Amino acid sequence: MASNIPKQQILSLYKSLIRESGKFPNYNFRCYAIRRVKDSFKANKLLTDIKLVRKEVDYAKENLEMIKRQCFFWTRTLIMLHLQNHPRCL
Q1: Is the pLDDT of residue 87 over 90?
Q2: Quick one: which of 17, 24, 50, 76 could link to 29 by a disulfide (CB 3.0–4.6 Å)?
Q3: Residues with Cβ < 8 Å from 74, sequence gap 6 or more?
């Protein structure tokens, strides 16, 4: 992903996506989101068409906003996480 868009902007977007994806309280969602971000940036690494690069950057920005919204709402933690702090499990 190069071309007209500054490399710093793309790198900043990548870091923001990884950081926000790491905020998912659920382990499975967190790992899936991080894996998807890494895979999509790796797949689009060699894009040279300016229109395609802009389209992918816009798509990544939309996904960043979606991830922020999803992480904002509290989700119920798994029962196994509660058991780890239980006196009998220590």
Answers
A1: no
A2: 24
A3: 25
Does this model's pTM top 0.85?
Answer: no
d(CA 36, CA 18): 10
Higher pLDDT, 1 or 20: 20
Alpha-carbon span 59 to 63, nearest angstrom? 6
DSSP the chain: --TTS-HHHHHHHHHHHHHHHTT-SSHHHHHHHHHHHHHHHHHTTT---HHHHHHHHHHHHHHHHHHHHHHHS--PPPHHHHHHTSGGG-
What radius of gyration do the chain's Cα atoms show?
17
